[in-house]
Write a structure and sequence with these properties.
Elements (H helix, E strand, L loop, with lengths): L12 H6 L8 H14 L4 H17 L3 H17 L3 H18 L2 H17 L3 H18 L2 H17 L3 H15 L5 H17 L3 H17 L3 H17 L6 H15 L2 H17 L3 H17 L3 H18 L4
Helix pairs in contact: 2-3, 2-4, 3-4, 4-5, 4-6, 5-6, 6-7, 6-8, 7-8, 8-9, 8-10, 9-10, 10-11, 10-12, 11-12, 12-13, 13-14, 14-15, 14-16, 15-16
């Protein structure tokens, strides 16, 4: 649930790399660096950030405000994926300041929405709502249907966090309805994934499952590992919520395979914990403990504190259950 307004454009990475030796210090080079970063952000975020920094540095050098602002949009998206939310907020606040100097309503609206997202992730919902409402008014004023759809998806997430799932679904369905009519696979996948989570909270598990399965297909097709892993994880979580424990092991093994490819310690730890839960319900507590300890090791390695807390809870449950085994 980290949706931000940045227009990821999927292109042929090798073709873009071949253009690097020809670059000069101009706006076209900035665009090239941004497009290159977008090809890496879902699979190799460190490389994506390298190109976004180059785009930002060059934009400052040639006094290209739009390029500097757009590099921030893309860079903060990756920071959010990495959990660096405070850094993302500071850069997004800077983007608002820079965008207002350009008097470009679309840039201002995007900067406002991204800053709202930073506040939302940090659970500062009142600040988030202020920035979202200001951005939504701007998008409505310029009659940009695509941006309004993106705004609807982001509002879906806000109301999800506020536990107003009816309004979350209302905005989510509006977003998905628009993106189904476009070729924008990234936004369709993200908005569908978010909508699946909203359906799940309403206990509409069939609708949630259908949404997540479509996102798995999209993520696989466009080679977006973040999207693919997230949807698989949501499907696994859905099996747990439905009490369909027999499917947990296979579901989390699928998540684990993508998490390793993505090199995400957090998702790997969640996958190990999920497999531990499967063995817990099979009453094979020794194997459950082994998987939980593997999850703890990798969570510590990745310094994923929230997941470590969940793993300790699972270990406590396992140790307690072992005392009752005859």
């Amino acid at each position: 649930l980290f949706t931000t307004v940045h227009a990821q454009v999927l292109m042929n990475r090798d073709s873009l790399l071949k253009l690097l030796p020809q670059v000069k210090e101009n706006k076209e080079a900035v665009e090239l660096y941004i497009h290159l970063g977008q090809q890496y952000e879902s699979n190799e975020p460190a490389i994506a950030k390298f190109y976004y920094r180059k785009a930002g540095d060059l934009s400052k050098k040639i006094n290209y405000s739009e390029g500097e602002i757009r590099s921030i949009f893309n860079y903060t998206y990756v920071l959010n994926l990495e959990g660096k939310f405070d850094s993302s907020l500071q850069l997004n606040l800077l983007s608002v300041e820079l965008a207002k100097k350009t008097a470009d309503p679309e840039l201002i609206g995007k900067a406002l929405f991204n800053t709202g997202t930073s506040y939302r992730i940090l659970s500062q919902y009142q600040n988030a709502a202020v920035y979202y409402e200001e951005g939504k008014k701007i998008f409505a004023g310029i009659k940009n249907e695509s941006m309004e759809a993106k705004a609807n998806d982001i509002l879906q997430i806000l109301y999800y966090d506020l536990k107003d799932y009816e309004r979350a679904v209302f905005y989510g369905e509006k977003a998905v309805q628009y993106f189904r009519k476009t070729t924008d696979s990234v936004w369709l996948g993200n908005s569908l994934n978010n909508l699946g989570l909203s359906y799940s909270k309403q206990l509409k598990y069939d609708k949630a499952k259908s949404s997540f399965e479509k996102v798995v297909e999209i993520g696989s097709r466009i080679n977006n590992l973040d999207m693919h892993a997230s949807a698989l994880l949501n499907l696994a979580d859905l099996s747990y919520k439905k009490g369909d424990y027999e499917k947990l092991k296979t579901a989390y093994e699928q998540v684990l395979a993508v998490a390793k490819e993505l090199n995400s310690k957090e998702i790997q730890a969640i996958s190990y914990r999920g497999i531990s839960i499967y063995y817990f319900f099979k009453k094979d507590f020794e194997v459950a403990k082994t998987w939980a300890l593997k999850a703890l090791d990798i969570a510590k390695e990745g310094q994923v504190l929230t997941e470590q807390a969940k793993i300790f809870e699972e270990l406590s449950r396992i140790y307690y259950a072992r005392q009752d085994v005859v």
